# Entry
Amino acid sequence: MREQKQPEGRIDIDFSELEGRSYSCIDGCALCCLCQPELLPDEERKLRNDPRLVEAISGKHISPDVRGAAIKLRGEHGACYFLDKKRCGIYADRPHFCRSFPISVFVGWRVQLNVNLSCRGIGLAGEPLRKLGQEIMTGFDERTLYDEFSSARRVFSDFNSNMREARIAQSVQSVRDAAQTVVGDLSDAIGLSKILTYAENGNTRQNSSANDIVRLARKSEAEANLEERAVIDGTELFDLPEKSMLPVYINERLDWRIFQLVDKEIVGYNLSEEGKIEEMSRTDPSDVELLPIGEDGARIFKEYFSTVNRRDCFLGHAAHLCDLEGYEFNFAQVYLGTMATNALDLWWRSSFLASLEGRERLDLREIREGIVFFDMDLLDLPTIGAFI
# Structure
């Protein structure tokens, strides 16, 4: 995975995902207040020095990968400690990660800003996201930003060296061009199955062209069983012991919902600010079929994964998996396989939500709801590089 060279001392900042998008916070949503915010060192000191606020500090985050202090969740899996009737009690002094939402800043071989598409305010008339992104970047201390950037580049450089040594390397451009060519195949059962088979059984040479990667993927046999894999992956998603770690879905009526696997059934709960839950549905995961995707649904599905394909954090996630697997598979196979696995996840989640409403087809609305349910978790996948 060869990174593009740039002059020493200059940090390339990519705002492209923000271009042409606007955002308006929806009163009564508070999705961002269901994410436990990390505290930067100066934010922690400020809270600890205020007797009214010190009780809000938690010594650990719900994610074991996050080190340091965070703000408590009410009832251990409810909303932020400071949320009251879906209003922030410290809005003027809210932490950096709250202030940045719905934008994430990822540092890899460059700095890239991503949009959290689980936020229902994206696309509404309001503040241009490019302007908000520029304000976020202006707020970073130059020394801190450069240190994070230098550290992340070293990690990516080490990964590139490991790939070359294992003879599985591909350029960023080749894997992204290949993925963009087949992105329309991801909403087609045969096409998706072929890509998953290619990921496991392909024989891709190092430094292949995008055309060669696409050819190998499309000539693979459609051996992967989508329904079986979808049910297994889908149930694993909800098979978590801590409710605070379960995916959160905010529906069009702004109800907060979580889903958990309990005794081989997926139990849906309505969630309150205080962390109280009320059962609202039970589903046998084997009853959730991958519903057919209509033309408009396929279009937005393709648009979404084109966006995912441009995200450096997603590339970093594929790199993380490649490292986790001991550099056994060619990076093109890992990358396309990761894209296909997440496409199957989105397809299944969209089908799951649609089945709760008795729908039998995934059109534009149903895929959009799946993206609302899915994108926050996709942005939270482990990756090399860092969100700051």
About this structure: Residues 4-8 have pLDDT under 50 and may be disordered. DSSP finds twelve helices and 14 strands in the chain. The two ends are 23 Å apart (CA to CA).
